[in-house]
Design brief:
By secondary structure, the protein is of the alpha+beta class. The protein contains six helices and seven strands; from the N terminus they run H-H-E-H-E-E-H-E-E-H-H-E-E. Pfam families: HATPase_c, HisKA.
Amino acid sequence: MNSLRIGLNQARLFLTFGVPVTFGVIGITGWFLGGLAMRPSLRAYQQLQQFTADASHELRAPVATVLSNAQVALMPPEDPLEQRLRLQNIVQTAKSMSTLINDLLFLSRHNGSFAETGLKPVDLCEILRSLAQDFAALAPAQSLNFNAHLPEHPIMLKADANLLKQAVINLLTNAFKYTPADGKVELHLFTQSHYAVIQVKDNGIGIPSTDLPHIFDRFYRVDTVRSRQTGGFGLGLAIAQQIVQRYGGQITVNSMLGQGSTFQISLPLKL
Ligand code: ADP
């Protein structure tokens, strides 16, 4: 009987303390693991919320401009020239809204879901050569010196030519936008071990070191007023980064305020 009583006491002790402690440990572990599992969804939700808020904020100002100009233009015309200016303002603002909407659509459409199938090997040299011609034609209008240093031999990799083109266009457009007249913009392409390296160098206004960690964030602009004047929404670099990362590449920047910037894209030479 004694040994039975000891056994029963031990079972009662276990039921009184052991079971609640076990359930407690299971509960805490479950809560911790649940939180861990939820973290990516929570982050994605917060990003989506931020993205929607930023996009709405960017669209609010141009919509207000269009509305106020249209309302005044609808009044009995006093000066036809003024009315024409208002209509021109509406067209200009609508164009910039259209650019913003296209960029937003691009980001959401290509968010982690680039079509992998049907990708053909493309010659990076050929893509950049045609881009270089386009930008060389634009340079004199801005009194810029533009030079492209591309190898003679093809550099092949498997990617969507139009998307790669878009990434480099965004970098070149920025170099042109943020380099004052008589400045220099260069486009380089070379291979380094198993990577194709594209560099866009300018000796323009440069980027403050405190802004460098953020410039690839969506809607980030170093100087909102300056970027607004040049028509930028702070999406160009985010788009370039999204494209490059999708192909397993990396985009980096080196910049000195007042001296210029070098943006570099490295893409793995996979076929
Ligand atoms: P934006 O459309 O405003 O140019 P981006 O995403 O392309 O947006 O660039 C983000 C910010 O980085 C820009 O607002 C600009 O201040 C800065 N930036 C980008 N490229 C350059 C450059 N080559 N020289 C100086 N500043 C640059």
